DNA sequence: TGTGACCGAATGAACATTCAATTCAGAAAT
DNA sequence: ATTTCTGAATTGAATGTTCATTCGGTCACA
């Protein structure tokens, strides 16, 4: 990752924080500027427009997530363990960066995101990861999109409960939920045990 | 539900549709007015402000959801079947009202929602439903919030895949996922089946 | 002829963006 | 070592636009 000018970073962090608190609207550039300790014009030295600022911020975070999710991952360890590892990494990233979840939710349904439907390396990464699990027969034969969204969706849900509901999950709780998910996503056992 | 004036309903529907397409910002009152076939001033005959319009719209939809989710539900049928029924109802509501999901996501993280933290009868309904399942020992002993968000979260995820991913789920797919969830949420079976 | 629904041009505030002016760091010249 | 020069970084007041909201007036109907 290239060295980012101090100011630029400050603008990123301010934007992230303000968007969390005030939403997407409700954060005028003037406010970003004040909060970052720069003049309004300075932002336009680094970014073409508000839209551009938001898009760059999105990429900036996505890059961090790519790194975070791959921590300790390794092609050589068993797939199940990789699955757990990736999910846990993602979970902890959200926990440690609580502003990110809110920003994403705002961003995902916004004109900015829709426009160019920007390429999303992070998404591709997960996508490929699940595809591998499916091809090797370890994950039930669903499309990688479904696998990806189901797993990621549950991680996000957990992170939200944790962050907004202020409920403290332990690693064991998370593992338990992932185990449920894993059972469901893998091929062994789908027996119905009632009536 | 009280009878709603034609114009008022048109304003609701327009808002919902426009918010889906253009996001929350990006839908000026003038646009809502034009799309609803009324004058700008008319909106202010029915609603105090834009904020008020959005909040009323939220309640309006929530009321519909309360009805939708209870279709065919009945205290007398087995809890498991009620669980499946409620989830399926919710799923089909989202499928049949694809604008709603986007509107909610915008609404949930917005200044409007945060402010008064409005009472939400729909949420209470689900909450009580899960509480009942937990008290009667049919659902694993988690807080009702967790049960609620986990189940609802997965329904939403499925609905999103369906609506935005344009993947056609069958009822059987949905049932399969719900079965996985149910297995995970109930007490029997949580055995780890590897190494 | 009074009342309430409805209209839409006019108002004013908020905001993104611009730009002329200023500072600053370091390279080049002396 | 000191001065000069240059372009990049930074500033914040000014600009123009986009809206939410208002309000005086019209229309339909009792």
For this entry, give a set of tags:
homodimer, mainly alpha, Arc Repressor Mutant, subunit A, Tetracycline Repressor, domain 2, 10 helices, elongated, DNA-binding, TetR/AcrR family transcriptional regulator (chains A, B), HTH-type_Tx_Regulator (chains A, B), DNA-binding (chains A, B), Homeodomain-like_sf (chains A, B)
Which regions of chain A contain 5 or more consecutive residues with pLDDT less than 50?
189-195
Measured on Cα atoms, how large is the radius of gyration of chain A?
Answer: 19 Å
Order of helices and strands of chain A: HHHHHHHHHH
Considering the protein shown, what is the CATH homologous superfamily of the largest domain in chain A? Tetracycline Repressor, domain 2
- The backbone outline of chain A, from C-alpha atoms, is elongated
Number of strands of chain A: 0
Main sheet characteristics of chain A: none
- Terminal-residue CA separation of chain A: 57 Å
Fraction in beta strands of chain A: under 5%
Name the CATH architecture of the largest domain in chain A.
Answer: Orthogonal Bundle
What percent of the residues of chain A sit in helical stretches (DSSP H or I)? over 70%
Biggest interface between protein chains, with counts per chain?
A: A-B, 39 and 38 residues
Mean pLDDT of chain A: 85
- Counting structural domains of chain A, the number is 2
Count the DSSP helices of chain A: 10
In quaternary terms, these chains amount to: homodimer
């Amino acid at each position: 990752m290239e060295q980012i000018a101090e100011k630029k970073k400050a603008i990123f962090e301010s934007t992230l924080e303000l968007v969390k608190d005030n939403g997407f609207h409700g954060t005028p550039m003037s406010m970003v500027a004040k909060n970052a300790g720069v003049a309004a014009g300075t932002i336009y030295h680094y970014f073409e427009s508000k839209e551009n600022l938001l898009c760059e911020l999105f990429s900036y975070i996505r890059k961090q997530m790519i790194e975070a999710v791959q921590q300790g991952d390794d092609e050589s360890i068993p797939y199940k363990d990789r699955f757990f590892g990736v999910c846990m990494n993602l979970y902890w990233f959200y926990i440690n960066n609580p502003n990110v979840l809110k920003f994403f939710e705002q961003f995902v349904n916004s004109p900015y995101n829709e426009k160019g439907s920007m390429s999303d390396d992070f998404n591709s990464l997960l996508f490929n990861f699940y595809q591998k699990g499916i091809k090797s027969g370890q994950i039930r034969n669903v499309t990688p999109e479904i696998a990806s969204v189901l797993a990621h969706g549950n991680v996000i849900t957990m992170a939200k409960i944790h962050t907004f509901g202020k409920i403290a999950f332990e690693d064991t709780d998370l593992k338990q939920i992932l185990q449920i998910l894993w059972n469901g996503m893998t091929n062994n056992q789908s027996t119905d045990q009632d009536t």
